Amino acid sequence: MAGILFIISAPSGSGKSTLVSQVRSLVEGLDFSISYTTRAPRGSEEDGREYHFTTRSEFERMIAAGDFLEWAEVFGNYYGTAISALSHAKDVGKDLLLDIDVQGAVQVMKKLPEAVSIFILPPSPEILEMRLRNRSEAEHVTSETVIQSRLAEARHELKQMRDYKYALVNDVLDQAVSELRAIVLCERGVRDGVQAVASSCRTDAASPKLKAALSTFER
Ligand code: ADP
Ligand code: 5GP
């Protein structure tokens, strides 16, 4: 059975990476696609763990070779999802999670309309700014220009939210983690037919089997 492809997008600093890593530790069978990027590693990031860090020329070679399911230029750097991430998840029988920006998400929605898209919002621009500043301080890379461009981009990205199937607000982390986990489990239920089977057993569905059994008691 083909796995489910989950697309997750959020304005930078909304807490998407934090949420995704917590959900992955709670839910089995979720593979994470490690993107390629031309941006420099941040803080404690390691090549091959958060991203495959690469050069512009290598990235452009991969575009020309047709290696990407999607790619986009975000904040002046290239980011892309390798097609091989899909086949790898399929081979190991896992669902796949993509953490990509709205431009990339639109490309994947067009190519793979069965993908399940989830948008994560910060509770407010003020809280988003605070999170961006806290993260920059923690990583010792405070740049006012970077923070301002990410805040401006957030307003732009929010306009795309209605193209996504689900949206959740990352206010209280535990609650957002529960919501994201519930979406994953619910979509698996739909895929496996669990929801349809459960619905067919509802009393108000009055299935032929139920009616037949009841009628035997009326004899
Ligand atoms: P993103 O991946 O969306 O760019 P991060 O996961 O790096 O964002 O989170 C940005 C900052 O916000 C980090 O310092 C993280 O610890 C913090 N953060 C994430 N979620 C929450 C939350 N629900 N409440 C408070 N702080 C949060
Ligand atoms: P960051 O530099 O903060 O890690 O990521 C910046 C933005 O790039 C985020 O919105 C993130 O979702 C997006 N991004 C990360 N990987 C990919 C990718 O493979 N493709 C696209 N289109 N966007 C990505």
Task: Describe the protein.
The chain is of the alpha/beta class. Helices cover 47% and strands 18% of the residues. The protein has helices at 16-26, 56-64, 84-91, 102-111, 125-138, 144-158, 173-191, 194-200, 208-217, and strands at 5-9, 30-32, 36-37, 52-53, 68-74, 77-82, 95-99, 116-121, 166-169. The strands form two sheets. Strands 2-7-1-8-9 form a five-stranded parallel beta sheet, sandwiched between helices. It has a four-stranded mixed beta sheet with strand order 4-3-6-5. A hairpin with a 2-residue loop joins strand 5 and strand 6 (77-82). Helix 1 packs across helix 7 and helix 5 (125-138) packs antiparallel against helix 6 (144-158). The protein is elongated, with a radius of gyration of 21 Å.
Helix and strand layout, with pairings?
Elements: E1 5-9, H1 16-26, E2 30-32, E3 36-37, E4 52-53, H2 56-64, E5 68-74, E6 77-82, H3 84-91, E7 95-99, H4 102-111, E8 116-121, H5 125-138, H6 144-158, E9 166-169, H7 173-191, H8 194-200, H9 208-217
Parallel strand pairs: 1-7, 1-8, 2-7, 3-4, 8-9
Antiparallel strand pairs: 3-6, 5-6
Bound molecules: adenosine-5'-diphosphate (ADP) and guanosine-5'-monophosphate (5GP).
Adenosine-5'-diphosphate is lined by residues 10, 12-18, 131, 134-135, 170, 173, 176.
- The CATH homologous superfamily of the domain at 5-33 and 94-217 is termed P-loop containing nucleotide triphosphate hydrolases
CATH architect. name of the domain at 5-33 and 94-217: 3-Layer(aba) Sandwich
The share of residues in helices is 40-55%
Number of helices: 9
- Please state the average pLDDT score: 93
Q: Strand content of the residues, in percent? A: 15-25%
CATH topology of the domain at 5-33 and 94-217, which one? Rossmann fold
What is the CATH C level class of the domain at 5-33 and 94-217, in words? Alpha Beta
Q: How many angstroms separate the termini?
A: 45 Å
Biggest beta sheet attributes: 5 strands, parallel
Bound molecules: adenosine-5'-diphosphate, guanosine-5'-monophosphate
Low-confidence stretches: none
User: N-to-C SSE series?
Assistant: EHEEEHEEHEHEHHEHHH
The geometry reads as elongated
The computed structural class is: alpha/beta
Write down the Rg. 21 Å
Number of strands: 9
Strand line-up in the sheet with most strands: 2-7-1-8-9
